[in-house]
Write a structure and sequence with these properties.
CATH architecture of the largest domain: 3-Layer(aba) Sandwich
Radius of gyration: 23 Å
Structural class: alpha/beta
Distance between the termini: 66 Å
Strand order of the largest sheet: 12-13-14-11-10-15-16
Number of domains: 2
Bound molecules: NADP nicotinamide-adenine-dinucleotide phosphate, magnesium ion
Number of helices: 14
Strand content: 15-25%
Number of strands: 18
Largest sheet: 7 strands, mixed
Shape: globular
CATH superfamily of the largest domain: Aldehyde Dehydrogenase, Chain A, domain 1
Helix content: 25-40%
CATH class of the largest domain: Alpha Beta
């Protein structure tokens, strides 16, 4: 009998689908198939590979609404977010469809001949995806990997396989040859682990917890396997007194409560300069109380439930014995009584040693702390093992630059909370990750640079 996983709707806890879990033998067979078709995919004319990726993007676009609805059902994402996420897969495919004809090498001056470099694809790439952004994180791996001429095996999170499975079908519909992109729903300990140990998988792209990421890195070391890690975060939103406080307070909830806080870039620590602290908190309370935490399928929904009962237990565990300053709403009746809801919650922190200040909660919880001057703000922002993203609110351009350069994180925004644009690089400092995804250089991260010298005599 095959093992299955029952997918639940996080808003209601109702079963949605029964998904067969890929076995170890099936994983090996898929990896071997991906390795077998690699040569043909690598050797296809660059313009033809580009055309196929654009066709894939077109098919994703044609199914955008279906994919978005499926994500609302499987992940509890708001319908607005889910449409953005499906659109992001399309856009990433379109962006990297311009790469195959542009995988330039170099010609380097040498005596007695010609020296040229090539960016050669690696072979089979294994992409391991977490449950928080099933579509975008999948696309950030498979888009540039396929464009560079690799074949891809992809493992979605056990909790959120539905859109990935659909993307695998859409790739075939778009004309990608069988075996070039294979989605393998299953357990991390079976399918994900095999990506690490199977010698035919030449690179692993992992997004998820820092704990599992470290184990993957250690496992990859055994074969000196290439690895990219996108891990946790505890990002700071630093608000100076000279900033537009109304704007800073109105936008802060979205920067942490979007996706119910299940975002590695969540600005889950807010640092506010003391002279603006009271005004900021007052305005933040108004903003948090008016956040629309309702049925994620409702067009007006701004925040949905957490992914699982387990994740809810983790998040509420962080709140045990912690005094909350104020909270927003969350539905707890009707069809939603059994769903995995937690209201947006604001905690005042006065000690940087507190777990709520140091650890990634991965839920709708934010901690606020006052600071006195720029030096202290940067020191507090950097007092963490993580370094993924962050925001700086100030009207002083020099200060914005100094703090942006001073904070040890891969993705910073000034007077805004934007962090991930597919055409700019994304990744973490310190224990938030290793390597970069997205941006113009991403395809090169899926290649080896080969140097060839040709003697002229
Ligand atoms: P996780 O265990 O790191 O899972 C991420 C992915 O890795 C999933 O596809 C998972 O498969 C797979 N996996 C698990 N163990 C593996 C192994 N030994 N070898 C290979 N792959 C493996 O994360 P989680 O348990 O879902 O979430 C735990 C915490 O991680 C969260 O509370 C949050 O703090 C953090 N997190 C961070 C991000 C991020 O974007 N940086 C995303 C998600 C979670 P299964 O689905 O089968 O477990
Ligand atoms: Mg886990």
């Amino acid at each position: 009998m095959t093992d299955t996983h029952t997918v639940l709707n996080p808003a209601t806890a109702a079963p949605v689908a029964e998904i067969a879990l890929t076995t170890l033998a099936e994983t090996d067979a898929a990896i071997e198939r991906a390795a077998a078709v690699f040569g043909a995919w690598r050797d296809i004319a660059p313009g033809e590979r580009a055309r196929l990726l654009r066709a894939f993007a077109t098919v994703v676009d044609a199914h955008l609404e279906d994919l978005a609805r499926l994500e609302v059902l499987n992940s509890g994402h708001t319908i607005g977010n889910a449409r953005w996420e499906a659109g992001n897969v399309r856009d990433v495919l379109n962006y990297y469809s311009a790469a195959p004809e542009r995988m330039f090498g170099r010609q380097i001056p040498v005596a007695g001949g010609v020296d040229v470099t090539f960016h050669e694809p690696l072979g089979v790439v294994g992409v391991i995806v977490p449950w928080n952004f099933p579509m975008p994180i999948a696309g950030w791996g498979f888009g540039p990997a396929l464009a560079a001429g690799n074949t891809v095996v992809l493992k979605p999170a056990e909790l959120t396989p539905l859109t990935a499975i659909r993307l695998g079908e859409l790739a075939l519909e778009a004309g990608l040859p069988e075996g070039v992109f294979t989605v393998l729903p299953g357990k991390g300990s079976v399918v994900g682990e095999r990506f690490v140990t199977h010698p035919l998988v030449r690179k692993v792209c992992f997004t998820g917890s820092t704990e599992v990421g470290k184990r993957i890195m250690a496992g990859c070391a055994d074969q000196v396997k290439r690895v990219t890690l996108e891990l946790g975060g505890k990002s700071a939103n630093v608000v100076f007194a000279d900033a537009d406080i109304a704007k800073a307070a109105a936008t802060a909830p979205y920067a942490v409560f979007d996706n119910a806080g299940q975002d590695c870039c969540a600005r889950s620590r807010i640092l506010v300069q003391r002279s603006a602290y009271d005004e900021f908190l007052g305005r933040l309370e108004t903003a948090v109380r008016s956040l629309r935490v309702i049925d994620p399928a409702d067009e007006a929904s701004e925040m949905g439930p957490l992914i699982s009962a387990q994740q809810r237990a983790v998040v509420t565990g962080y709140l045990d014995g912690v005094e909350t300053a104020f909270t927003g709403a969350a539905p707890d009746d009707g069809g939603f009584a059994e769903g995995f809801w937690v209201p947006p919650t604001v905690v005042l922190a006065d000690d940087p040693a507190l777990p709520i200040w140091r650890e990634e909660v991965f839920g709708p919880v934010v901690a606020v702390m006052p600071f006195d001057d720029e030096e202290e703000a940067v020191r507090l922002a950097n007092d963490t093992e993580y370094g993924l993203s962050g925001s700086i609110f100030t009207r002083d351009l020099g200060r914005a630059l100094r703090v942006a350069r001073g904070v040890e994180a891969g993705n910073l925004s000034v007077n805004s909370h934007s962090s991930v644009r597919y055409w700019t690089p994304f990744g973490g400092y310190k224990q938030s990750g290793l390597g970069r995804e997205l941006g113009p250089d991403a395809p090169n991260a899926f290649t080896e640079e080969k140097n060839v010298f040709i003697a002229q005599d």
